[in-house]
Amino acid sequence: MTKKAIVFLANGTEEMEFTISADILRRAKVDVTVVGVELEKDKPAICANGTKILPDILLTDKELEGNLSYDAGVVPGGLKGSHTCRDNKKVQAIIKNLYDQKKIVAFICAGTLVAKASGIPKGHTVTSYPAVMDQLTDTYEYSQERVVVDKNVITSRAPGTSFLFALTIVENLVGKEAADQLKKDMLTSSVL
């Protein structure tokens, strides 16, 4: 059965964290839906460094409503994009619903702020971009590791950890064999 994932996208999303995550998940044959948060129909998100990316659907689209049969939710960083997702009640509800169903919820960089806003409970160990660490340490154990997996919560630090982050999601969602094959195919084994 094909696994399905939501990858959220907003104005100010960090493009490397978004594109590497979405791309590697698709290479692993995961059915990825890019969900635009607080974007206008047929208009792209303008990412943190000016790259324009068009989502597959908007958070407000009817086809998303009631269709939460996803296996993973991914929130890229980028401070502005992370704040948009963090403050959006529908994003919070989707993330909490996935978490409660023991599905994978994954956050990178400032995206980890969305975990807290969504009510992912205390006690998890997480990581994030160092600048937002102080906003997380009152709720979570904090790690300096590049990628942290704690039950169904996966977190990572920054654009430079995007490949490892995405491959870790693949390993936990599809399996180690799929992740290892992608590492081999993309020639990333020696750099991770």
TrEMBL record:
It comes from the Eukaryota. Residues 3-171 form the DJ-1/PfpI domain. GO terms for cellular component: mitochondrion; nucleus. It catalyses: methylglyoxal + H2O = (R)-lactate + H(+). Gene3D superfamilies: 3.40.50.880. Its EC number is 4.2.1.130. GO terms for biological process: glyoxal metabolic process; response to oxidative stress. It is an enzyme of class 4 (lyase). One of its GO terms (molecular function) is glyoxalase III activity. This is D-lactate dehydratase. It comes from Phycomyces blakesleeanus (strain ATCC 8743b / DSM 1359 / FGSC 10004 / NBRC 33097 / NRRL 1555).
